[in-house]
Amino acid sequence: MAHFRVSSAVLPIAALVLTAGLFAHVAHAADSFLEPQGPIAAVQKTHLVRATLLILIAVVPVLCLVPLIAIRYRRRKQSQSAYAPNWDFSARLEFLMWGVPVVIVAVLSFYLWKATHRLDPYANSFGEAPAINVQVVGLDWKWLFIYPDHGIATVGEFGIPVGQQVAITLTTDTVMQSFMIPALAGQIYAMPGMTTQLHLVANTPKTMQGENTQYNGRGFTKQKFLTQAMQLQDFDAWVNSVRANGIPLTTETYKTLAMRTDRDEVQAALGTATMPLNALYFTLDDGDLFHSILRRYHSGQPLSVAQQPGTVSYGQESGQ
Fold this sequence. Notes:
Elements: H1 2-28, H2 39-72, H3 91-118, E1 132-139, E2 142-147, E3 152-155, E4 157-161, E5 166-172, E6 177-181, E7 185-190, E8 196-200, E9 206-212, E10 224-230, H4 232-245, E11 247-249, H5 251-257, H6 263-270, E12 280-284, H7 289-295
Parallel strand pairs: 1-5, 4-10, 11-12
Antiparallel strand pairs: 1-2, 2-3, 3-12, 5-8, 6-7, 6-9, 9-10
Helix pairs in contact: 1-2, 2-3
């Protein structure tokens, strides 16, 4: 019985230590919103911590009372516990058991409502400088970043200036995908023929990882990119570097990008000696490439096989 008593007493402490350890592990993991690099991720972190603490108001008493009740009412001789075989109701206990969770749910609902409006991906309430427009196209298995105002595009590298709003418009030219840069903002889905939006801003110069969180085949694990947050002068220099070292993003080049190839395969197909080993640079040949991609899905007729990415006619699977 002594062993049982010690084990029961440490259960609440162990649970709290485990929770704290989990938070510490996630917070120190690379590219986590628990280590925010922008105001949106910072609000998300605050919302999670607040919700966790509120939920613990209900969880901690349960963790504490279960072993205490098991010890107090265990079968033993000369027990001092009250014997009440006909007991079936306690107004005070019912009030605590139902009242506290109701209050917690009400408070959580209020904060959830506030956070939902505060973190609206379409809202541009973060940052005061004019936004930089970036158009993002999801492909198999890479992300294409188009900077229409700068005349450049990239794959594998997403450059943004520090402290300036970035207005992202997203679509895909393949299956549905989910765009996410955890250290800056939450994930948002993109679908072919449709657009969605996401606003974000970085506080400090930092290299962060972005990814697709929607499973989409063999190249899913490689559909990642580096987000480079830079000071404005460094961002301007980066834009000039992309422009100087990029190749024209022609119809044929885009057709190669649209093939079902992962980042390494497309790098081998289109990369040059002047480009980084993990990124592709382009200059824009079509001034309205993003909307030309969208218009293919709005002709009123189903796409023919020759127009569908991933097919032999449009861009076959690598290795076929």
